[in-house]
Every structure is written in structure tokens, then in C-alpha cells.
Design a protein that fits this description.
The chain is α/β, with parallel strands linked by helices. It has helices at about 20-25, 40-45, 55-65, 80-95, 105-115, 115-135, 150-160, 165-175, 180-195, 215-230, 265-285, 310-320, 360-370, 380-385, 395-400, 405-415, 425-450; strands spanning about 30, 50, 70-75, 100-105, 140-145, 210-215, 235, 245, 290, 295-300, 330-335. Helix 6 packs across helix 17 (about 425-450), helix 9 (about 180-195) crosses helix 10 and helix 15 (about 395-400) runs parallel beside helix 17 (about 425-450). The structure holds tryptophan.
């Protein structure tokens, strides 16, 4: 797929791991530049490495304002360790006070993997949701729903189709003339998934963060673009002092914004909209406001880049009062993928590449023993040259999943590099920790199995 050289295809079974290039090419921000409250091991170890607009969410968290987190699961295949990473992050946001919405992408799974809706429901509940409680999600604060039964999501996806076109789908996803239309509709439903929690019936306007692997970024770029294009007020840096606000005239606001069918401008209407914008800016505490209805702009000279988010949210509120959708572009975070056991991509369709959450201990141990190693080919060489933890699956799985203690992990890392720890020893350490983790998880799972229906939203029971 195209997009300026680097390709990201959300449905592909291969994936790019050139993360710094991904950050640069798609305009992600480095997560390392933010201070996170109570970071999890995924944050501390740089596994969650990038974001878009996460400041919005952290700000809300700090001031005690509402924020939400949304993710989706594709009901096909079994749940494996890789899937648990997103849930870890959802749990982190939940513990910080975020409300949680989880989309079961049963329509997408049917469209792109041929999984029937009833089979999709069964997989979602037995494979995925059953593991969520064991992983520590709170069922009382989590809403799981199905794409196929939430009409609001489908309607929103359909309506927002107005804000994109086939050329954009071609450039984002590489779709061509022969692309099946169900495949075209799936991303639009996902746009509905991501944006609907901020509609009035689902909690109202608030920042929503979507933690994903980089392979899902195309969906976020699409969604963010669509949300911005639908906005009635554009808010941006004024390339000089202040923040610049402009009106975006569209079908659904043209009359209100004074555009008469004969092409003339109804000045009184324009003046009214401008004065409402000014009132909202004053409510935010700004007093110096240059409102210029003739030019169609408002400049707030004393506002800085940092005020842009607040101004944007305030004007989305105004847009909603005036009858618009008032959609805030979603925030997102991105995590690295854990390498597959064999060194290739982790995938539920290749059981040897991953550990399923219900694998028994003997299987887990066998898989880790066979895993791709960063050790040297003989003990002697290993002692002399040392191993490479960066490509050693056993070490990597300790880092991603099984070992909580950063200090101990750093010790393993340097002892492996120096040759003090052998590849087989690293595997044994991983097996021991994996055994603890898996037996604990499976025990929790049997204790929490009865909670599955508590996770379901009322429209999805
Ligand atoms: N497309 C996602 C996947 O392949 C599933 C999904 C559907 C999703 N809707 C979502 C993920 C919204 C994040 C946000 O796994």
C-alpha cells in the first residue's frame, strides 16, 4: 500500500517495525515527552511509544473532567498475549478514571474474515470478554457492544461518509476498483465506533483515547480527518501571536451561517454567530478578541498554542448548541508489537508464533523452549560475545508480559549481554515467570467467568 513509501495495512499479516519512520511519516508524537501518572510497565519500558493528542486526556484526568477510552476487538481466532497489551492499557486508563467502551467488530470480522455474526458473538464472549475480567477490567465501568446491533454507530458511520471519498480510501488503505464494498464500509463503521462515545446518548463531549498497535493508525487518521472536516469552527495557530478561528460553511450550517440560496450573505446571521463565538471565548476568560465578521475570522491575540484545545472544545459545545455534531478528533496511543515466538509476526492463525491465554503450562513451556533466541551458537561463544536481548524472544516476553520488576529486568538484560546468562537459562527464567503468570491468569479466569454478561452494554445482552 502506498502513502509516501511506508506502508501500513490494518488487514495485512506482515507489519512494518520501523517505528521512528512511522512516527515521522504519520506525524505521531513521542510519548517520552509526556509525564504520565502512575505509568505501567508498558509505558516505563517504551513499549507504548507514541501518541496523538494524549495531552487532552491527561489534562482532563488532572482536572477531574470526564474522559473515555475506546477499543475494539476483532472476533476471529483465539485471544493471545499480543491482544492483552491493549487491555493492559485500557485498564490503566480505567484506573485513572476513564470510562471504557469496547466495540466487538463483528461486522468487520464478517466482511473481512468471513466470520458469521453468531460465531463472532460466541468468539467475542468466550475468547475475549471472558479474559478481560481476569486481566483486571472492571465490569461495572466497562461497556462492550456489538457493531451489528448498535444502530447509532452504523448511522454515524454512514452519515460521516459525506466527509470522505474513494480517493482518500485509495490513499489511506490502497483500495482499488476491485475492492469489495463491505471492505470499504468496515472502516466507516470503525469511524462510528471511535466517535460515538462522545455523542450525547453515550456520555457526551469529552476526550476519547484509542490505544492501538500502529497497524490501526490508518483508521485513526481517517477518523481524525473526518471529525475535523465536519467541524463548524476551525481553530488554529495564527502563525504569529494568537489563535485564529474561522467558520467552516457546510450544507448543514449554511443557512445558519447566513449563506442565502441566492448567494447573498445575511449579515445579521453572520453577526449573531460571531457574537456567540465571542461570548464563548469570554467564558474561557479571554477579553481581548478581534472579531471580524467581514473577513470571516476571529483572532484571540493573547491565546497560545496551549489554549487551542480548550478553545476547540468550547466551540464544539457551541456547535452542538447550534445543531451540529461537534465531534472532537480522537486521541490515540501506539504500542510496539511483541515479536512472535518464532521471530515472525505474532498471529492467532499461526499457533506457533504466540501463546494463547488458555494454553496449558506444558504447551507454554514447550513453545518458549523452541522460541527464537538471541544467544550465540555455542556456550563458549556466548560467554565470550554475549547474547542479544533485543531479539531474544524469552527476554522480550519477560519485558512485555511476565516480569514486573524493572530492576531485575535490567539485570537480566546486562547479564545476558555480557554472556553471564546463557540462552537456555533465559528461556528457563521466562518459563518460570510465564508459568506463574499463566496459572494466575487461568485461575482468575475461572473465578471471573460468570461476569461476562456484566461487561455487556444494555443493547448487547
Ligand atoms: N479493526 C480492529 C481490529 O482489526 C477492531 C476495531 C473495530 C477497533 N473498531 C475499533 C479497534 C475501534 C480500535 C477502535 O482489531
Amino acid at each position: 500500500m502506498v502513502d509516501g513509501g511506508l506502508s501500513i495495512d490494518p488487514w495485512s499479516s506482515t507489519q512494518s517495525t520501523d517505528y521512528s519512520r512511522i512516527i515521522e511519516q504519520f506525524g505521531l508524537s513521542n510519548l517520552g515527552n509526556l509525564t504520565l501518572p502512575n505509568p505501567s510497565h508498558l509505558h516505563r519500558r517504551g513499549i507504548v511509544f507514541a501518541h496523538r493528542d494524549l495531552e487532552l486526556v491527561l489534562q482532563a484526568q488532572k482536572t477531574g473532567d470526564k474522559f473515555g477510552v475506546l477499543t475494539g476487538l476483532m472476533p476471529s481466532g483465539r485471544m493471545h498475549l499480543g491482544h492483552s497489551m491493549v487491555i493492559e492499557q485500557v485498564k490503566w486508563f480505567q484506573n485513572l478514571g476513564g470510562d471504557v467502551t469496547i466495540a466487538v467488530a463483528d461486522l468487520e470480522s464478517q466482511a473481512t474474515r468471513g466470520v458469521s455474526l453468531s460465531k463472532g458473538r460466541e468468539i467475542a464472549l468466550q475468547e475475549y470478554v471472558a479474559n478481560y475480567a481476569a486481566l483486571g477490567l472492571n465490569p461495572d465501568l466497562t461497556n462492550v457492544y456489538f457493531q451489528s446491533t448498535r444502530a447509532d454507530v452504523q448511522r454515524l458511520g454512514f452519515q460521516l461518509g459525506k466527509r470522505t471519498n474513494l480517493s482518500e480510501f485509495e490513499s489511506i488503505y490502497g483500495f482499488k476498483g476491485e475492492t469489495n464494498l463491505a471492505h470499504v464500509q468496515a472502516p466507516m463503521v470503525q469511524v462510528g465506533d471511535i466517535l460515538h462515545p462522545q455523542t450525547e446518548d453515550y456520555g457526551g463531549l469529552r476526550p476519547i483515547v484509542v490505544p492501538v498497535g500502529v497497524d490501526q493508525d490508518p483508521h485513526l487518521r481517517l477518523t481524525r480527518g473526518i471529525a475535523s472536516k465536519s467541524n463548524w469552527f476551525n481553530v488554529k495557530d495564527n502563525n504569529g501571536p494568537g489563535v485564529l478561528i474561522g467558520l467552516s460553511v457546510q450544507d448543514d450550517n449554511a443557512e445558519l451561517f447566513g449563506q442565502q440560496p441566492n448567494g447573498r450573505i445575511d449579515k445579521a446571521k453572520v453577526a449573531s454567530v460571531f457574537s456567540q463565538v465571542v461570548t464563548h471565548l469570554v467564558e474561557l476568560g479571554f477579553s481581548d478578541i478581534n472579531s471580524n465578521p467581514k473577513q470571516g475570522t476571529i483572532i484571540v491575540p493573547s491565546a497560545t498554542r496551549k489554549d487551542i484545545n480548550n478553545i476547540r472544545i468550547k466551540l464544539l459545545q457551541l456547535e452542538r448548541k447550534l445543531g451540529g455534531m461537534g465531534l472532537l478528533a480522537p486521541s490515540s496511543t501506539y504500542h510496539h508489537f511483541a515479536v512472535g515466538l518464532t521471530g515472525e509476526k505474532m498471529s492467532s492463525s499461526k499457533p506457533k508464533t504466540t501463546i494463547f491465554l488458555d494454553d496449558d503450562i506444558a504447551t507454554v513451556s514447550k513453545k518458549i523452549k523452541k522460541a527464537y533466541s538471541g544467544g550465540q551458537s555455542t556456550i563458549e561463544e556466548h560467554r565470550r560475545l554475549g547474547g542479544n536481548p533485543d531479539i531474544d524472544v524469552a527476554y522480550q516476553y519477560l519485558m512485555y508480559f511476565f516480569e514486573q520488576d524493572d530492576g531485575y529486568l535490567a539485570e537480566l538484560n546486562s547479564d545476558y549481554r555480557s554472556g553471564k546468562i546463557l540462552a537456555g537459562e533465559m528461556k528457563q527464567i521466562c518459563i518460570d515467570k510465564a508459568t506463574d503468570w499463566m496459572s494466575n491468569h487461568q485461575e482468575l479466569r475461572s473465578q471471573t467467568e460468570h461476569m461476562v454478561s456484566d461487561f455487556l452494554a444494555d443493547d448487547s445482552k
